[in-house]
Amino acid sequence: MTRPPKRPPQRRPKRAPLDGARLTAYDVLDGVSAREAYANLLLPQLLRERHLDPRDAAFATQLAYGALRAQGTLDAVLSRLVDRPLADLDRRVLDLLRLGAYQVLDLRVPAHAAVATTVDLTRAIVGTGASGLVNAVLRKVATGGDRAAWLEQLGADGDRRLALATDHPEWIVSAWRDALGAEEELEPALLADDAAPEVHLVARHVDRAALAEESGGTPGPWSPYAVRLGGGDPGRLPSVRAGTAAVQDEGSQLAALLLARAPLEGPDQRWLDVCAGPGGKAGLLAAVRPAGVHLTAADRAPHRAELVRGALSGEDDVEVLVADGREPPWAPGSFDRVLLDAPCTGLGALRRRPEVRWRRTPEDVGPLVELQTALLDSALSSVRPGGVVAYVTCSPHAAETVAVADAAAARDDVEVLPVAPLFGEVPGIERGPYGQLWPHRHGTDAMFMALLRRTR
Known about the structure:
Blueprint: H1 20-35, H2 39-50, H3 54-69, H4 71-81, H5 91-106, H6 111-125, H7 128-143, H8 147-154, H9 158-166, H10 170-180, H11 183-192, E1 199-203, H12 208-215, E2 218-219, E3 226-229, H13 238-242, E4 245-247, H14 250-261, E5 270-273, H15 280-288, E6 294-299, H16 302-311, E7 318-322, E8 335-341, H17 356-359, H18 365-382, E9 383-393, H19 402-409, E10 414-417, E11 430-431, E12 434-436, H20 439-442, E13 448-454
Parallel strand pairs: 5-6, 5-8, 6-7, 8-9
Antiparallel strand pairs: 1-3, 1-4, 2-3, 9-13, 10-13, 11-12, 12-13
């Protein structure tokens, strides 16, 4: 009996290499969901390591930030198409579904390309079984149309529709309405959170015009030390490498300048930055203070205090302390000016940290308000009679801004000093006697500023 001839082994077709930009974007989503990483820190690291060309790097950035920002809307669509709660999915599969759905709903990526590349990623990262689910769900997403079509299918109205259309949780929509006090500005303010932010530089010990020429940027409209960049890696600039300039949002610069510009009664010799990490505002204060002013910068976290030391490297007459502002090692009334950049929800920087809008919850606000109140009470005790405290937060939320400042102002030894007259060049900054910056008005983070004088 003769055996049939053996068939030659069939070679599997070679798979196309994974798309580097999409894989990088997925790794950012995975870092955020698995390790609570911050996208604005993780993505630049990955781009440096992987040497993507500028076009792919730009697409990876758009895809990672966009999918993180749109998570709520993407999940609302996906939950219609998956036969189990999204929380029951493999975390990696959910991130991949979000990545593919974002391309279909919000980017001009052909549906077949978005589906095929996401299926390839799924097969490589999770396995063949999961790729079938991803393929089926994303095809249904594409069949449903773009974002506008899906908003109609979801049938949302009122704040729910606005939340889905602008990629915000409903509680933030409500908080922004309260903070703005102007319904016609609500949607532009929310949409401004979704725009890619410019990179801002601060000219600490270099002429601003020279920094603008060196960087190819333009002088900022509000801070006399600000330069706004159109693109590029600021870390490669000689002035940034030398420490004479740094990356700092123009709104953050104004918050530091508020303290320096405040009218003062009596001597002006000792300044304090009580929650100084990572050191951006302390660095600017050190640069603009008059000769003979001693600057103390404190932070309760040793690693953040170390960052402050780096920011103040080369500065004379400064000291950096590891200290909790609620239980300070210095005596009451030790300082003439005190800056309290209080820990907060960070909702004023949603452009730079798109995932924060989904990571924060309304329940986070109360404990932070307790901390802010305690820190502000201690800051007022740390300043001498006649001295000033600048209370600032990177948030417009009423509970951690106006409410905290109003509570301090109710003390019989505290006077509120209006913020707007100190920034006559900045329109639309008034929030009662306080100051509020907005991305849609000023192109900055949404910094809140209050100025309080201790009267006795």
